[in-house]
Amino acid sequence: MSFVAWSVVLLVASGVFGALFRGRASLADAVFRAGTLVAAIVGSVPAVRVLRGTPVPDVTLPAPVPGGAWAFGLDAVSAVFLLAILWAGAAAAWSGVAALRGHVAPAAARVSHAFVGALLAAMVAVVTARAAVPFLIAWETMALASYATIVLDHASADVRRAGMLYLVATHVGTLALFELFAVWGAGAGDLTFASLAAHPPGGIARGAALVAALVGFGMKAGMVPLHFWLPEAHAAAPSHVSAILSGVVIKMGVYGLVRVTVLQGAPPAWWGWTLLAAGVASGVLGVVWALAQHDVKRLLAFHSVENVGIILLGLGAGALGVTYAHPAVAVLGFAAAALHTLNHALFKALLFLGAGGVAHAAGTRELDRLGAAARAMPVTAGAFLVGAAAIVGLPPLNGFLSEWLTARALLHAGLSTGSLRLAVLAVAVLGLIGALALACFAKVVGTVFLGRSRDPAARAAHESGIGETLPLVALTAACAGIGLAPAVVLPAILRMGAGAAGVSLGAIWAGGVDPATAPMGLFVAVVAGLGGIVWASRALLRTRAARGAHETWGCGYAMAGARAQYTASSFAAPVLASYGRVAGVHAHRTAAAFATHAGDPVLDACVTPAWHAVERVARSMRPLQRGRVWLYLMYLVAALGATLGYLLLAGRAA
Amino acid sequence: MNHAHVGSSLAALAVLLVIAPALSGVVVRTKSAFAGRRGAPVGQLYWDLFKLMRKGTVYSTTTTWIFRAAPVVVLVSLTAASLLLPLDGQASPVQFSGDLIAFAGLLALGRFALVLAGLDTGSSFEGMGASREVTVASFAEPVLFLGFLGLVLATRRLTLSAMLGPALTAAWAHQTASLALVALAFFVLLLAENSRVPVDDPATHLELTMIHEVIVLDHSGPDLAVILYASSLKLALFAALIVEVAVPRDGLGLGWSLAAFAGGLLVVAMAVGVVESVMARLRLNRVPQLIVGAGALALFGIILLLR
Q1: Which of A82, A237, A369, B23 would staple A458 via disulfide (CB 3.0–4.6 Å)?
Q2: What is the mean pLDDT of residues A156-164?
């Protein structure tokens, strides 16, 4: 645990140093980069040790406030999240230093870096806290540090609005978490996770606690319909901050749901089914809404909703496996959820950093103005392509590995007896999500990187600097590495799943479940090997044949301009047409112009009207507020009188 | 899995790889017979491939390395996918629990490469084709999964090798209706995934109306040969899937099994030709209804199994 503590200290100190340091900017930046990298390495030591099966002892600090001791610990579940936080965070921090240089006042940039460091440190504390009080302190620190990083560009009204929406949403979530721990802790001796696990609430209290957990953690995770703040905030933030928010911060909500599932022992059946249903809704709606977007960062943000849906499918299967005492489903489900969390952190950070680089070079995030970025930015394009293939779940990359595990958990559920069998239908939903994600990323890669530039003013003129391409290359290598080395990754992640499910792996393999580690390794090797062989033989063939270059075939008409290319909106239109109003696309037609606008149906149709209704009610109470001191004193006296009366009545009843 | 199985399954794979271009020829011959024409020889595609392999290549100046890599990825993904099927009716060369996900993932990989190659040219025709391709696939992929779910539930096996192999023979005895529905759904899927009538007309010559053919407008020479071969392999792969579901070959010797396999492929190809002859193409906005209908069939089969 001391390694984790050092990692936290490094993250905070390197950022704060830059914020306070008044000397050369390059020194402050170098310290921050070094701090995040060393923190990632130092923090990974215990995480890898835990994942290899060696436990790390817990640390208990005396509590300065009521609520029991402040315990910290690192189990395999925390270790997976810790790796995601540290490495996606380090890559984003490195890229952020280069991205902000020359665009933001140096002092503001360094304060922003300090908040990024604090955000990462707070998340490390969230996943290692083993008591409610330090957990909530870390949670709130994380929420506030996120806010500070989102509103870096606070001169823009859109950014301020998105920041406020985020702030309100996250505090509604925190309020729900207070209720969770208050209700759950009422029956337990103190608020350490150990005593919470020993005294799970029963009856209505349990239901209230779990609903609060669903709201609090689901809000942070971006689970439909609580996702409405996410696309706004993640699009408004600087790209490297979006990478951290989408890659890691929303995973803290997932972590909370995993932790609540595990702490319950045997969760009730409705918990697992609710998670599964939320996974289906988030997965399908997230990707449909993503398809409708015109802004590349909003699109990526909606894909985070989709991927949280995939994670929840795994987690739901895990919870159901525990409830229905089906260990194979439980282990595979928990392992799938954790691996997809780590994978999504890597490829979503990669995609946001890549998109940020393009937006930076081209000066716009509007898909229909971009194009041909692969020519000027070959490294960014290659990295983005790998990230896109990974998020779509194509073999042999890491996204495929975790989606395969998710599907296996659900397939094993299908082989069981009783109502658990119905979970198998979610596999078809997984197929639907994958196909829609493919459509969406074909649209993004095609319109941003390929073809011709649609708008001369928005042409990406140059590759990002080494400070931004290096993190991209590192994340690409991580995505490919996890996908190509299932023999290394799968045993560790399955051991983690077994720990979360509270069963032994040996018993499951003995029960006829196939670990499938070695053949999976063979499979990815075959795919990669075949690719190499065919590519090599193509190179041989090419040397013999003549080659020519010509413009694209236009049915004999060679004058079509770049604006005649298929746009992102047209590309997505046929798919979206099938989803009708759910897709949230509004068309604006005039005699000579046509435009579409992609909103968020939940925000536009539910949250905003509800908020206006609250405002109306609040306005009707305005007459109470007259600005006269004597009136307020009267209110005080009346309130005291009412309290006294209540106490008298309550005393008589007793 | 023992070595004899590897040998026989690789022999079956060789049959598939060799016979694939002929299947397209069989479809064309069937259509010709319906139309009262003689039609091109069954082996026409082999000759076309041979011709294209010796030609030079013209690349659009708009394209990048993605355009050049796409044919390779398409071919590799389909070859790797065929390694997952037990083509000899017994076992597949590569198998692992949940490999049906890998099968679908490989098809998706090939599609991703092809669609990106189309978009790489910057042509609005190819963009249109790419858009239609992913639209059709977004309906077809869940149906493929539903079909696989039906097989999983009917045979209670989690590898393609086992659920299309010996376990299927026993399942046909008890789960006839479900398996027939799955086979029917797979046939509709074959038409949709391979851009055949009523989803797309491979014989049309108007770029505006095509799906698959329009994506590959700019490919030429050996690249086009690879793509044409891969398309025929994809048709053969789906035909093989249908044959494996519909004709369990447990208990036959290797020779008979391969003969039944090849014969089954020809029958499926002729059925495609018959459908293409007696049906018109659907309007594009009606295509999703056809595929969702196939999904409903498969889902009904699953409900019968879950009852």
Answers
A1: A369
A2: 94
> Which residues, numbered 233 to 292 in chain B, qualify as contacts with chain A under a Cβ-Cβ cut-off of 8 Å?
284-285, 288
Query: For A4-23, what is each residue's pLDDT tens digit?
Result: 999 999 999 999 999 998 88
Pairing state between β A547-550 and B57-60: parallel
Q: What share of chain A is helix, strand, coil (3-state, %, to 5)?
A: 75, 5, 20
Residue of B124, B87, B91, B74 whose CA lies nearest to B3: B91
Q: What is the pLDDT of residues B84-119, one digit of tens each?
A: 999 988 888 889 999 999 999 999 999 999 999 999
**Cis, peptide link before residue B202, omega less than 30° from 0:** no
Q: Pick the residue from chain A with its C-alpha nearest to B66.
A: A450
Distance CA A32, CA A17 (A): 8
Contact A238, A285 (CB under 8 A): no
Q: How many CB atoms neighbour CB A418 within 10 A?
A: 8
* Torsion, Cα of A87, A90, A92, A95 (10° steps): -130
3-state secondary structure of A59: strand
Does residue A458 surpass a pLDDT of 90? Answer: no
Distance CA A95, CA A240 (A): 6
Based on its alpha-carbon atoms, the radius of gyration of chain A, rounded to whole angstroms, reads 26
pLDDT, position A544: 62
**What pLDDT score was predicted for residue B1?**
46
Which tens digits make up the pLDDT trace of A471-516? 999 999 999 999 999 999 999 999 999 999 999 888 888 887 888 8
* Mean pLDDT of all residues in A379-403: 96
Each residue's pLDDT tens digit, A621-646: 888 888 889 999 999 999 999 999 99
Exposure class string for A575-588: b at 16+ Cβ within 10 A, else e: bbebbeeebbbeee
What is the value of ipTM here, to two decimals? 0.97
CA distances from B209 to A447, A559, B49, B128, B200 (A): 22, 22, 25, 9, 8
Amino acid at B253: G
- Does B102 contact A395 at a Cβ distance shorter than 8 Å? yes
Tell me the pLDDT band of A234, cut-offs 50, 70 and 90.
Answer: very high
Largest CA distance in chain A: 103
- Is A402 an interface residue toward B (CB < 8 Å)? no
Complete DSSP assignment for A159-183: HHHHHHHHHHHHHHHHHHHHHHHHH
What is the C-alpha to C-alpha distance for residues A633 and B1, in angstroms, rounded to an integer?
Answer: 87
Which sequence spans correspond to the domains of chain A? 266-524+572-583, 602-653
- Arithmetic mean of pLDDT, B249-272: 91
- Asked if B127 and A565 come within 8 Å (Cβ–Cβ), the reply is yes
At B163 the pLDDT is 92
C-alpha A195/C-alpha A206 separation (Å) is 15
Distance CA B285, CA A607 (A): 33
DSSP secondary structure code for residue A465 in this structure: P
Q: For residue A442, give the nearest of B116, B140, B284 by CB distance.
A: B116
Nearest CA in chain A to B131: A571
**How is chain B split into domains, by residue range?**
3-306
Q: How many CB atoms lie within 10 A of CB A198?
A: 13
Q: How far apart are CA B104 and CA B76, in angstroms?
A: 14
CB burial string B255-267: b at 16+ within 10 A, e below:
eebbebbbebbbb
Cβ of B149 within 8 Å of Cβ of A425? The answer is: yes
- Put simply, the chain B residues between 125 and 164 with a CB less than 8 A from any chain A CB are 125-128, 130-132, 134-135, 137-142, 144-146, 148-149, 152-153, 156, 158-159
CA distance between the termini of chain B: 34
DSSP-assigned letters across all residues of A61-104: E--SSSSS-EEE---HHHHHHHHHHHHHHHHHHHHHHHHHTTTS
